[in-house]
Amino acid sequence: MPEPGLYSHGLIIGKFAPFHLGHRLLIQRALEQCERVSVWVYSRPDFAQMPSPLRRNWIREVFPARLFPGLHLLPDAPSPPLNTEPDATHRAYVRAVLDGWNIHPDAVFTSEAYGDALAAELGAVHVCVDAARATVPISGTQLRADMHGQRAYLEPHVYAHFVQRVAVLGAESTGKSTLTRALGESLGTTWVREYGRDVYERENGVLMPEHFLEIALGHRALEDEAARAPGVHRWVFCDTHAATTLMWSYLLTGTALPELHALADACRTRYTHTLLCAPDLPHEQDGWRANTEVRTVQQGFIRQDLGTRGSAFTEVTGSVEARVEQVRALLEQ
Question: Beta strand pairing status for 7-14 and 107-110?
Fold first, then answer.
């Protein structure tokens, strides 16, 4: 391993779209050899689904400032040239911006062929890391072409950004919990249980408005955890969401906290798909549920809420197996 401090100031420039294990290796090598390292997230056009601040945060989560004080993430620079413009245009732009920022690296770290010319433009040494992609056989271009198939080369928190959530809704005893689990197992991914049941049973069914906010926040935390879990693949299936929790808050306490309203409003964009389980299964009493007539009323409230919010949804019917096939067909569209 090269001795620390071989270079005074290392520079890394890249799209980091997305940040992957090859980028991590590049930054690690630079940190091993430099007293300090500047990383510039650079692309024009930027990537709408993963803008530069998000990509910088991905890097910082792996290399937190408290553990890597020598790593500096540079800000966005004004009006960079288009990615399609000649390398010479980019080199001149980089030199001008760095001069303006009073940044003068003595080493440029890349895994790319352009590294020699860029380093020469800056009066620095080019340190090439894994140019053949032998250590980490992946590139950003390959990942953007098949993000889910190549997910093994992404950090969990990065891949979680590309995982899509599917909400499974329905009144009591409409099979949503069973369907949520069945979908996760059928599609080989993670699923999230109904966190409200945990709180409801813990409190012996006596809930206050604060409990419903706890339920909504806890459920979202479980979703985020599932999106980062080792077994996740493309989808996370979620047994209910905050808008249904809002309904229960009003049904059981007559009111709801403003924070819960905000979480319910966010459901419209948080989930890629919303499934509504039809009440065509036999009602099963588990000691906590109401009767069939109440189930019908609950289902009506959920439909009304979806309509009022303008939330698109797909109703699934029939047996668990039939519902799974309906959802698979939906997700394959």
Answer: parallel
Query: Taking a C-beta distance cutoff of 8 angstroms, is the pair 209, 246 a contact?
Result: no
Q: What number of other Cβ atoms are within 10 A of residue 52's Cβ? A: 20
User: Which of 80, 62, 53 is CA-nearest to residue 20?
Assistant: 62
Cα within 13 Å of Cα(80), Cβ side: 24
pLDDT digits (tens, 9 = 90+) for 287-307: 545 546 778 889 999 999 999
pTM assigned to the model: 0.92
Please report, for residues 119, 178, 181, 183, 326, the alpha-carbon distance to residue 321 in angstroms, rounded to integers and kept in the order given: 60, 11, 12, 10, 9
Domains contained in the chain, CATH given? 7-145 (3.40.50.620), 163-331 (3.40.50.300)
Residue 178: how many CB atoms within 10 A of its CB?
A: 16
Going by C-beta distance under 8 Å and a sequence separation of 6 or more, which residues neighbour residue 53? Answer: none
**Tens-place pLDDT, residues 83-141:** 999 999 999 999 999 999 999 999 999 999 999 999 999 999 999 999 999 999 999 99
* Residue 189 near residue 234 (C-beta atoms within 8 A): yes
Backbone angles phi, psi at 292, to 5 degrees: -65, -40
Tokens for 287, please give them. 């000691």
Say how far apart CA 82 and CA 77 lie, in whole Å: 13
Residue 138: Cβ-neighbour burial (10 angstroms; 0-12, 13-18, 19+): middle
Distance (Å, rounded) from C-alpha 126 to C-alpha 115? 6
Strand partners, 161: none
Report which DSSP code applies to 233: B
Asked whether the CA dihedral 25, 29, 30, 36 is positive or negative, the reply is: positive
> What whole-number distance in Å separates Cα of residue 148 and Cα of residue 254?
44
Separation between Cα atoms, residue 89 and residue 185, nearest integer Å: 51
Q: What is the 3-state secondary structure (H, E, C) of 95-128?
A: HHHHHHCCCCCCEEEECCCCHHHHHHHCCCEEEE
Burial class (CB in 10 A: 0-12, 13-18, 19+), 146: exposed
Residues 201, 289 contacting (CB under 8 angstroms): no
